[in-house]
Amino acid sequence: MALGIILGRGLALVRQAPQATSEVPFLRVAVRILIAALIAVLLTYIVIEQVGTWRRRRSGRD
Amino acid sequence: MTERRNGVPREIQRFTANELAQHWVLLITLVVLTLTGLGLFAGDTWLGRTLISLEGGIEARGTIHRVSAVGLMLLVGWHFVYVVFSERGHRQLMEMRPKTQDFRDTGTLLAFLLGRRGAMPEFGRFTPLQKLQYWGAGIGSLTMVATGLVLWLHTAAMMVMPKWVFDVTTIVHGYEGLILFALLFGWHLYIVHLSPGNFPLQSTFLTGRISTSRMRREHGIEYRREFGEQKPPAEPRAGKGEAR
User: Fold this and answer.
1) What pLDDT, in 10s, does the model give residues B75-93?
2) Cβ of B58 and A7 within 8 Å?
3) What is the dihedral of CA B127, B29, A29, B164, to 10 degrees?
4) Which residues of chain A are modeled with pLDDT < 70?
5) Chain A contact for B54, CB < 8 A?
6) Cβ B96 vs Cβ B66: under 8 Å
7) Which of A27, B76, B123, B170 is 20 to 30 Å from B101 at the Cα level?
């Protein structure tokens, strides 16, 4: 019961969090774009490496 | 380091016990901080609710998160003392300094991976991507500690800073955590253990050792500085790892 109340209050606080930071919504959007760009760069590197290694092994240069 | 060929051992100790211990503390604290932080960050999703439940509820989650945060703060202090006051640590830090050559080498590495260049660039003690991971994790950890302290001591912080700074700190702490997660548990894990030549596991983080043939392949400049033009003994199971 007590745990349920604590959990319930905690989750209620969590749900309030976006409203509490609504004064800087542009920052939230900017950071999300930054993270998306970073993940895209990291994924691009992985793809380039995998494809490059596969191509070199295929052509027998590795 | 017993088996040698022309004075070159089969393996060398690349990292000391102190450095491996720092890596373990960072690994454990960041895993715990990520899991407990993600519970709150995604609290209104099934993932967040599951994590909070597994962590013993919202209060226990907070306690675990703060204990791990203290661990990370102690590690930051330990690492600072190590790189500033110990000779080896300071030398390592100097090797980690970004140089103009690193940008050129990264371009050459990408050209090599794209098949536009026949040979890989030669690297020193640390490759440009290793430097990027070190500084990314370092600056990220410092940011997390600073913003985390503001959130932890929020009553005192709100007395000396405007509300918008607190709002920005909340956002930075949450999303910087996500960036660190992507950098360390996504990219770092891929580069060290899952990339071609390293899969399924590179054991340097366990033993601190690296084979000299791998060192010659991945850290050619450092190898020549240590052993000149001597060839290393062959690896028992020759991998084809590449410097990253």
Assistant:
1) 999 999 999 999 999 999 9
2) yes
3) -120
4) 1-24, 61-62
5) no
6) no
7) B76
* Cβ–Cβ under 8 Å, residues A49 and B195: yes
CATH number at residue B173: 1.20.950.20
Q: B214 and B102 in one domain?
A: yes
Query: Is the Cβ pair A62, B240 closer than 8 Å?
Result: yes
Could you tell me the residue range of the domain that residue A48 belongs to?
24-62
The count of domains in chain B is 2
* Residue B164 and residue B186 in one domain: yes
Q: Are residues B44 and B145 in the same domain?
A: no
Which tokens go with B2? 């017993």
- Give the structural domain span for B119: 96-244
- Best residue in A35, A44, A49, A59 for a mutation probing chain B (most B CBs within 10 Å): A49
Q: Which among B114, B167, B175 has the least Cβ separation from residue A35?
A: B175
Tell if the CB–CB gap between A23 and B164 is shorter than 8 Å.
yes
Please indicate if any CB of chain A lies within 8 Å of the CB of B16. no
Q: How far apart are CA B53 and CA A10, in angstroms?
A: 12
The ipTM assigned to this model is: 0.71
DSSP A5-23: HHHHHHHHHHHHHHHHTTT
Looking at the complex, does the CB of residue B112 fall below 8 Å from at least one CB of chain A?
yes
Quote the minimal CA–CA distance from B187 to chain A in Å: 7
When CB atoms are compared, the residue of B115, B164, B168 closest to A52 is: B115
* A62 in a structural domain: yes
Predicted structure pTM score: 0.82
